[in-house]
Amino acid sequence: MQLNHYNSKFKPQDFPVTLVTDNVSDGANIGSLFRAADAFGVAQLFLCGDRIPLGKKMSRTARASEKSVPYQTAASALAVVKHLKANGAVILSLEITDTSLPIHSFKFLKNKPIVLVLGDENFGVSDAILKLSDALIHIDMFGVNSSMNVVQACTIALYELTRQLRVF
Predict the structure, then answer these.
(1) Can you give the pTM of this predicted structure?
(2) In CATH, what is the architecture of 15-138+146-165?
């Protein structure tokens, strides 16, 4: 028998993880980020930028997960990241750079809150946030393309992060 959210045996677990979007502006992507955040027990979602689509397209894709994931909007991802870092969070940007580490080899800290920064669909995480980050992590890819959809990347990153942090 196929299981659903009413009869699955998954135990809810919360993680000290905050997602910060740096100008993610597609409604379907925002909705899918809510679903990923809910699925992986993310503590909070910050939607940052001047064009955050919280309308019908986002709601349809989120499938009501926007009601279960605490979120805030802000004009500046940089300001949010600075604030969270000043309050003791470890800032990790999900971006391929010449110094980024493969996510599967990165060891996530269990004793500090983690902020995972996700970049703009076209331009990635801003240089200012990359410079402020405690670490840059990427997902190894083996095809011709050097990028993937922000939601796909986020979901892979949250899987690895929660795999390392979860309590059995």
Answers:
(1) 0.94
(2) 3-Layer(aba) Sandwich (3.40)
